[in-house]
């Protein structure tokens, strides 16, 4: 009987050892993935001159369908290892030593990934009270965020409020109804140029670009409204171009990314998208209510000019609200002090790193043994990240920052916007010619069309992208 018990204990111990060997294989497998991912991201960043690691870790770490969580969170594996160690109770056993070594190696391999997660602003549950994100909470100004979102909303209303009546306006000025496409599109063309100087301007201030934007939009809408009494299509187009030159959407986006704390940044970004979609729907809808005509001091107010008058008043009120309520972010003062300290030693690393991106596309990702990076060189990653986020100074430098995948996405986005703008610009002409719709019917149709943007984005963003690969 004693012999049977001894053999059973021996067999049980061997079974535990076999479990330990499987556990070692699993730990080594996770360690291999963590090490491989770390080295691939480091080599990618070096060869392409672009800090892709931040984006990759940020977008994958907390995604419900991402396998990166297996690299970040090994609490279960460590717990299993500790339980196995307690069950075997054999000090000095080779399997125990192998398990402990594998656990230590995995912890070392993933420590850099944890650092990358924190560096990419992935907030952990045990973030200390004195962290940098809490400093952002103190300097965060809710009213300034609201002013940015209102600017986004008003601009989209301004863009689409003239769509139902632009064809009638062009006819009243002696032009063809199809000229409405030029009237509507001129604002978007001017926006291409405004996005450049507003992006550069936002490196130094947010308040002044928003003030300039409001003044330009007020002036542009005023000219748009006066063009009817002046009987000038040129004044009408100048007014729309001024509106496009006042587009501060680049400032609105950057304010959210730079000045809003991480814990509400997602909500703020959703607010930006919602404000744009609601403005796109409210613009034509508001035009449907402006079906009246009267004259005050030789100034004509009708369905064609009222959108200009209404938006002029709206931008004037917004300018007053902005002037008294907006708070400039504190980091501009700190950045100015740092820039003054660096005037004696200008750096060209940002330009060089941007120029390396396109060159990296033609070079192998894996380096030779003489060029391999030292695994202990992660201390320089913080400086590399700062240089990779420096603003582009020209169209050429901005283009070089784009990877082929991003270029394809931008092309697709351009084609979608192209098709949508054709539909919107000529909707009043087509519906009048083929279906005899009046202005109110066109306005309701476009408002309903604009209201479909949010639910479609929610379905695609929350469900479809989780079922299928992006490509």
From TrEMBL:
Coiled coil: none annotated. Residues 1-58 form the SPX domain. It is found in: Membrane. GO terms for cellular component: membrane. Its main location: membrane. InterPro entries: MFS, MFS_Domain-Containing_Protein, MFS_trans_sf, SPX_dom. Pfam families: MFS_1, SPX. Keywords: Membrane, Transmembrane, Transmembrane helix. Residues 372-391 are annotated as: Disordered. This is SPX domain-containing protein. The lineage of its organism: Eukaryota, Viridiplantae, Streptophyta, Embryophyta, Tracheophyta.
